[in-house]
Amino acid sequence: MKKIILNTLGLLLILIATISCTKTTNNYYTTNNGTTLTGNVQGIVSLYNDSGGAKILAPNATLGGDSVVLISNSGAVYKTITNNLGTYKFTNVPSGIYNFVVSKPNFGTVQDFGFEFEGGGTAYKNFNMGQIPTTSVVAVKASSSSTLISVSGTITPFYTANYVVVYISLPNTTFVNSSMGNYSYVSGQQYIPAGLTTFTFSAITTNALHNLGFASGSIAYISVYPQNNYSGGSGSYQDPITGLIVYTALGVPAFTSVIVP
Q1: Distance between the two ends of the chain, CA-based, in angstroms?
Q2: What pLDDT does residue 207 have?
Q3: Does 5 reside within a domain?
Q4: Closest CA to 232 of 20, 97, 99, 47
Q5: pLDDT tens, 76-97?
Q6: pLDDT score of 2
Q7: Is residue 181 part of a domain?
Q8: Which residues have a Cβ under 8 Å from the Cβ of 48 and sit 6 or more positions away?
Q9: Dihedrals phi, psi of 99, to nearest 5 degrees
């Protein structure tokens, strides 16, 4: 009886060794005979409109045609588009580390970094995208005290966005572009309560600007973007190269400036 049990255990160990896989130094998972594992990567891209951030329900032609690009650390690129259900699928994808780039006209671009795919089956990755708002930010102005910088303005029409994002340029420049990461300060999403069309943001301290390299008497250039408030997500991601937060679904900005105290 003991011999039969030992023989059975030995067969199980051989079977496990036969189907086991290992991770190589280039982040590919392979079987013990060196074959790279492959599989499928699929998911859903959900869209949210700019009228209160309502989800666009499937099936809908608007959900189709989203560009989904999968880029491996080795440089391989896979491309597909979503159907009218908002779904996408990549087949026969080798295991590895991948970055996603999802884009759609009027919805902007969302990226996701460091997606580890082991292969040998199907992995799922979903995305949420908000429509770029048609709101305008107007009458923007900035003022300063000895301790604070305040930014105020009006957003119209209200219903298409109830968030704004405030950016400040790099010291000694007039250029602010959130998508390129060329800014020294970003406020994060600033909520405008329901029923209001005006906003005032007063959380920028003069000490913070000094620490960022702005000298007293220099000019800080400010841009204010309306942002879609949608329930599918925060509408931002962190760029691993720059370490900066990139906000998506941003509308047309308004600009102002202030002399740093």
Answers
A1: 88
A2: 94
A3: no
A4: 47
A5: 999 999 999 999 999 999 999 9
A6: 41
A7: yes
A8: 54, 55, 56, 128, 129, 130, 131, 228, 230, 231, 232
A9: -115, 140
Domain CATH code at residue 71:
2.60.40.1120
For 233: left if phi > 0, alpha if psi spans -120 to 50, otherwise beta; the answer is left
> Residue 59, preceding bond cis, omega within 30 degrees?
yes
29 with 22: CB under 8 angstroms?
yes
3-state secondary structure of 180: helix
pLDDT at 182: 75
> Within this chain, do residues 174 and 85 fall inside the same structural domain, yes or no?
no
Q: Where does a domain end: 130, 159, 183?
A: 130
Same domain flag for 252 and 140: yes
Helix (H) / strand (E) element for 258: namely strand 254-259
For residue 123, being part of any structural domain is answered with yes
Domain limit, last residue, from 83, 114, 130: 130
One-character DSSP codes across 6-26:
HHHHHHHHHHHHHH-EEE-TT
Domain count, the chain: 2
Residue 246 tokens, joined: 């990139």
Query: Could you give phi then psi for residue 179, rounded to 5 degrees?
Result: -65, -25
211 shares its domain with 241: yes
Which residues in 55-84 are b (16+ Cβ under 10 Å) and which e?
Answer: eeebeeebbbebbbbbbbeeeeebebebbe
Q: Say if CB 36 and CB 23 are below 8 A apart.
A: no
Q: State both tokens at 151.
A: 């930014």
Per the structure, the complete domain to which residue 145 belongs is given by 136-259
Question: For the chain, which residues score pLDDT lower than 50?
Answer: 1-19
Torsions phi, psi of 104, nearest 5? -160, 135
Dihedral sign for Cα 194, 200, 206, 211, please.
positive
Determine the Cα–Cα distance for residues 200 and 158; give it in Å rounded to an integer: 15
